[in-house]
Amino acid sequence: MSGYQVGLNSFGSKPADFPHQREGHLDHLTWYNSRPALQFFGFDDPVNCDALIGDEIRITVHDDHVCSSCGGDVDPDRDVCWDCADSPLMTPCIWNPGTECSWSDCPYPEYKRDACAHTFVVYLVAKDSVKVGITRADRRQARWAEQGATHAAIIGECHNRKVAGIVEMCLAEEYPSKADSSWYIPVDDPVETLVEAAAEAGECFPDRLAGCYTLDGLSTAEIRERVVSVPDRSTRVNDEIVAGTSELSRGDRQRGHVVGVRGSVIATESFTFNAKLHAGTRVTLETTGDLAVPEEDSNT
Amino acid sequence: MTDDIILLEEADVRNDLEEYQTYTVVVTVKNTYSNPDQGSGNRKLQYIDDTGTTRYLTLWANSTPEAVYDFDFEQDATYTLTEVQFTTNESSRRVFYNLNATEETEVSHGPPEDDSATNRQAITSASEDLPSTGVATKDAVAEEQAPTHTRESPSLDEHIDDALSEVPDPATTQTRHALTAFASTGRAGSLTVHEYELVAVNGYLPDDDEAALRDTYKARRQIARQHGDRPVVAVVEPLTLVALEKIDESAIDIDDFRLEGPQDALPRL
User: Fold this and answer.
1) Is the ipTM above a cut-off of 0.85?
2) Which site among A79, A260, B95, B173 is 20 to 30 Å from A266 CA-CA?
3) B124 touches chain A (CB under 8 A)
4) Where is average pLDDT lowest: A115-119, A233-237, B138-142?
5) Considering only A7-21, A95-109, A221-235, B101-115, which range has the smallest mean pLDDT?
6) Same structural domain for residues B253 and B129?
7) Does one domain contain both B149 and B195?
8) How far apart are CA A143 and CA A197, in angstroms?
9) Three-class HEC string of B28-48
10) pLDDT value, residue A110
11) What Pfam families does the entry give (chain A) (predicted)?
């Protein structure tokens, strides 16, 4: 016995043949340059998820793990190491900047300079419902793709992370800011749903930050033009079926044909693998296809 | 475990607690967090200690009873947690002070109940031994509940003041340029600009203005490539370029053109 819990589809009549394999501690699923790729700690090249679509894969989620933030050693009962736990990105001032950031008395001035003192945007995304979020303006596209949104619209442009966090906090009373990362069934008519929410969102901005609302005075048609679709690889996916399949847990091993990738989730016809839930965990990915790495962008 | 009851708001855990000891702690929760990016296994109770430092008591899913881990902690409410362990660790020349719930931890609303004279004695004697260390008597615990002792969270206006504290006034007005930044606080100093013209050679002539403009951009790329440090070069109009530094025309090889200039350096804003 392998010692791993396997799905029914792993007992096919044809023996599995997986000539390509990557085993390592998982980092995250990145959408840099709109291309989904699985990053592993200690590997220079990520696994190109585009190359997996249509191919059969087998994923084994092992029990051991490293720090999900830096890839270093970590106590077995912890997800992140002591160093990371007390440093950005893992500190409450990053999760809830609206209330927890001490901007003028920041304990992490270098991080503030590098990551917080920049133009931030407040946005709405369409998933199974409309959510609010913030991100540094220059990485918005990657952020939306990592979240697995289908569409997004910028509604606010703010001076820094804390200003954006305050606006997000006010908007969170109307729209949730926390989202489940599992595969979901998209909201009906996401564009119109976003347009409607974005047009009304200005009312939630605090008076003193009303100038941060970027859609003031725009017509519905103009707001619609601001809605962008987010890259994914789910056009061939039946969301109702995939959203109802099981999600791999620690100790599981399953195989199936990859039908799509959205956000942090790789979907097969019989199970999903949510990379976000297994950051830091040792994972073996085997495939009948090539573990090609994404090509370099010719413009960079 | 010690019999001491630690009122965290009046304690300085760095000095008051002993490593690997477990304590009963009274904590006024300023907020609770569960960071999904850290996985599903942690919950942190935020409090402010006697030094004004924001600190956290951590519940780890794997080592905290379910009833405690899932407890509905309310903001600004006070709770008593038993068997909380204090540890330290040092990393990157920083010392971290950790309060973690254990498998024996229990939680209750408010300060601990007055259920035994022995316990009270123990608490009192502890506080007498350490009068200024934050180990509190039950009276002190009760006193802490009085409204006059409650620390208020900053208001929305105070948060906005803080968030805008380093933003110059003119920058609070948007430029109205989507996805750029906010208005600058002043004008940039004057720059010296060198103007260059592209002169066609070898009988070549662009077909029209559009072709000439394409040739100009192509020349700009060739100039950039042929310099070790890429100079700042911009296209002004077809066959005209400007640069922020002098370019050695003789060292530049451009298809069908030669670079001519600079004309007299022109001061520009």
Assistant:
1) no
2) A79
3) no
4) B138-142
5) A7-21
6) no
7) no
8) 20
9) ECCEEECCHHHCCCEEEEEEE
10) 83
11) DUF2797
| Predicted pLDDT of residue B154 | 84
Crossing angle of helices A161-171 and B156-163, in 10° steps, is 150
How many independent structural domains does chain A possess?
2
Pick from A44-53, B60-69, B107-116: least confident: B107-116
Q: Do A82 and B62 touch (CB under 8 A)?
A: no
pLDDT band at A7 (very low <50, low <70, confident <90, very high): low
The pLDDT of residue B134: 31
On chain B, the residues whose CB falls within 8 A of the CB of A104 are 162, 165-166
Question: Tens of pLDDT along A93-106?
Answer: 998 899 889 998 88
- Classify burial at B56, counting beta carbons within 10 Å of its beta carbon; exposed 0-12, middle 13-18, buried 19 or more: buried
- Residues 6 or more apart whose Cβ sits within 8 Å of residue B32: B43, B44, B45, B46, B73, B75
Q: How long a stretch of residues is chain A?
A: 300
| A226, A153 contact by CB (below 8 A) | yes
Q: Could you give the CA distance from residue A152 to residue A121 in angstroms, rounded to a whole number?
A: 12
**Is B127 contained in some domain?**
yes
Chain B positions touching A85 (Cβ under 8 A) are 38, 96
Chain B (223-252) residues lying within 8 Å, Cβ to Cβ, of chain A: none
Please count the residues of chain B. Answer: 269
Tokens of A146: 């990592």
Contact at 8 Å (CB) between B243 and B193? yes
Query: How would residue B133 be classed by pLDDT, with cut points 50, 70 and 90?
Result: very low
Q: Are residues A202 and A260 in the same domain?
A: no
Residue pair B257/B199 in contact by the 8 Å Cβ criterion: yes
What letter would DSSP give residue B161? H
Q: CA distances (Å), A226 to each of A124, A132, A219, A221, B40, in order? A: 11, 16, 11, 9, 35
Q: Do B179 and A92 touch (CB under 8 A)?
A: no
Query: Which pLDDT band, with edges at 50, 70 and 90, does B262 fall under?
Result: low
Share of chain B above pLDDT 90, in %: 19
Does A210 lie in the same domain as A108?
yes
Indicate the residue type of B120.
R
Residue B174 lies in a domain: no
Domain of residue A144 covers 92-229
Q: Give the whole-angstrom CA distance, residue A210 versus residue A45.
A: 44
Among the partner residues B40, B94, B179, nearest to A157 by beta-carbon distance: B179
Question: Do B191 and B255 meet the contact criterion of CB atoms below 8 Å apart?
Answer: no
Asked whether A79 and A68 are in contact (CB, 8 A), the reply is yes
Mean pLDDT score, A141-157: 95
What's the pLDDT at A208?
Answer: 92
